[in-house]
Amino acid sequence: MKSKSVKNTSRNIVWGIVNRIFAFLIPFLMRTILIRILGSEYLGLDSLFTSILQMLNIAELGFSAAVVFSMYKPIALGDQDKVCALLNLYKTAYRIIGAVILTVGLLLSPLLPLLIKGHVPSGLNLYILYFIFLGNTVIGYWMTAYKKSLLSANQREDLNTNANTIFTFAKAVMQILVVVVSQNYYLYLVMMPFATIAENLYIAWLTRRLFPQYVCRGQLDRNSRRDIGKRISGLMIRKICQVSRNSMDNIIISAYLGLSQVTIYGNYYTILYGVHTLLECITKAMAASVGNKIVVSDVEKNHEDMLRFTFMYMWIASICAVCLLVVFQPFMRLWMGERLMLPDTAVILLCLYLYTLCMGDVRSVYVTSAGLWWEGRYRSAAEAASNIVLNILLGKYFGVSGIVVATVLSILIIDFGYGTTIVYRHYFKNGKIHTFYLQHLFCAVVTAATAFIVFMICRMIPDSGLTGLFIKGAAAFALGNLCLLAAYHRTARFRDALCFVKNMISF
């Protein structure tokens, strides 16, 4: 019989992937409709306001992750009073964060005309549009969004993602109908706060039905509040550094090579980021189950689980990297044409970029579930600093390829190398870090050999539009898995992973 945590993780993965697919397709559809019916200026306004509010949302600073982590232990031990006190703290904090975002958002409103070059579409009031966006963001904090933490901490992240998928889809349908029938941009935007309110009311009803014992009451002791504050500080550093890593590449490319290269690189990075986001559905789905096991299982069992999950995850990451290597250039040639393509060397490096991003994903789940954000503060700062310095040095002499190499080196040395020592020093403490490194080294060698073999075979398949692209992708997927199977099938790690997968799907 499959354990409850495995069932929950399976659900979370499946529905997380469904949610990410919708998250990709719906914005693409909405962008197309806005441009075709209303015009590109309306899409520009939509993107501008979204970007402003995303910057303001940094006020959240990872508070939700810290609270969810703090709930793992009391939920596992049945300490209802502490869960209620945490929920009460979360509610209060979100009310304050919402007020901060509202205040800062209002203070920024006089600057809106300075952020728009050219004219606003006639008949539109810039401030009314902005206040609709701002109100939509604040509503989420002031209503019952904090109750999502109960679902996450109880290993039911699938319910959060399902609710988000349903209401995002419903909002998109209503917005499409409004645009097609009335072509009224105000009505189009008003659908956003309505959908936000509806989703919050549904989450409130769902959590009352599933967890009626948890209500907002009580106060945490001083030590618990101090511990959460410390974790939030570590998370804040980590989030800021992640933004720095993701943004610095484009800034350096723009400074050295110009906006045209930023556009070309952005096209490739959008696909790479989309693939990695889908992969992260797996690790996100694992988080609550791992957090629960850290509380109830011994360290050695959790270490063995991490090695198993890492092997399985890197198999998937290897296939994604190999398939990207094969289809990246044919897809770009079909989509953008020869003029907007990077050289093959840069594409190989981008596939390596994806692979190195994945190398630390499973380990990061254990860092998060063990609450080691504060312990990893120096790692985050070191990675951001090294990425900036290497980007400047290598980007100046080697262009886009140098910038990708700089990012890969920062991830590989600081995030993967240094970051792994943190979880082994502060949680596992078993002196087996070499096992983790050797497993990754073996996987990397196998992946490199697989990539070379598959690429050399698939390059013989002629490019013939969408049909050729599909054939190349299918061939890369099949050949990649066959190569990995040939390399791993006699290993104990493969047999262990196979047993786990059989158990996972046996329901």
Write the layout of secondary structure elements.
Elements: H1 4-38, H2 40-56, H3 63-77, H4 80-108, H5 126-142, H6 148-153, H7 157-182, H8 185-210, H9 222-257, H10 259-296, H11 299-335, H12 344-359, H13 361-369, H14 377-428, H15 433-458, H16 465-488, H17 492-505
Which consecutive residue ranges, at least 5 long each, have pLDDT under 50?
A: none
Helical segment count:
17
Q: Could you tell me the strand content as a percent range?
A: under 5%
Supply the number of structural domains: 2
Order of helices and strands: HHHHHHHHHHHHHHHHH
Summarize this structure briefly:
Helix content is 83%, strand content 0%.
What does this 3D model show about the protein?
This protein has helices spanning 4-38, 40-56, 63-77, 80-108, 126-142, 148-153, 157-182, 185-210, 222-257, 259-296, 299-335, 344-359, 361-369, 377-428, 433-458, 465-488, 492-505. The model has no long low-confidence stretch (mean pLDDT 80). It contains 17 helices and no strands. The longest helix has 52 residues, at 377-428. The chain has two domains: 1-211, no CATH class; 231-507, no CATH class. 83% of the residues lie in helices and 0% in strands.
